[in-house]
Design brief:
There is one protein chain. The protein has a single domain, classed as Glutathione S-transferase Yfyf (Class Pi), Chain A, domain 2 (Up-down Bundle). The chain contains 7 helices and no strands. Helix 2 runs parallel beside helix 5 and helix 6 crosses helix 7. The longest helix has 23 residues. It is globular and about 50 Å long. It is found in: Cytoplasm. Belongs to the GST superfamily. Theta family.
């Protein structure tokens, strides 16, 4: 949860870029962390559940119009994310990766796990993901998402 992430950042005095002491940068992180619950998390999870869980529970394929509607909802918040939060910056809070970037990339990996690539056709978003992956460490990033990216095997 967001509360636990903030607690851990404070308790273990993580490097400043994760949860900046600069009030303007911290406000950007906090702004994203407050926004993401009903936007990227809500829409990304909805797509994940619609494509994965719903067919498993019902034994029926999802109607194409339902999938299209859920996908469009995600596209709307992805546009907002790019325009409002990324703008022309490398990361959400500026020039360094933060907790906001970690939370955002995790939410966007969920749709990828069920075969919907939210980064496709979005060069700004794809480049941001690459930077976050590099900042975390490519191997750690891949290991962390391995189970999610192989979930279709269930």
């Amino acid at each position: 949860s967001i509360a636990i992430l903030l607690y851990l950042a404070r308790k273990f005095k993580t490097p400043d870029h994760w949860y900046p002491s600069d009030l303007q940068k911290r406000a950007r992180v906090d702004e994203y962390l407050s926004w993401q619950h009903v936007s990227i998390r809500g829409k990304g999870s909805k797509l994940f559940l619609t494509k994965m869980l719903l067919p498993m529970l019902t034994g029926q394929p999802v109607p194409p119009e339902k999938l299209e509607s859920v996908t469009e909802e995600l596209n709307v918040v992805l546009n907002q994310f790019e325009e409002k939060f990324l703008q022309d910056k490398p990361y959400i809070a500026g020039s360094e990766v933060s907790l906001a970037d970690l939370v955002a990339v995790v939410e966007l990996m969920q749709p990828l796990g069920v075969g919907h690539d939210p980064f496709a056709g979005r060069p700004k978003l794809a480049e941001w993901r690459r930077r976050v992956e590099e900042a975390v460490g490519k191997q750690l990033f891949q290991e962390t998402h391995e189970g999610l990216l192989n979930i279709s095997g269930l």
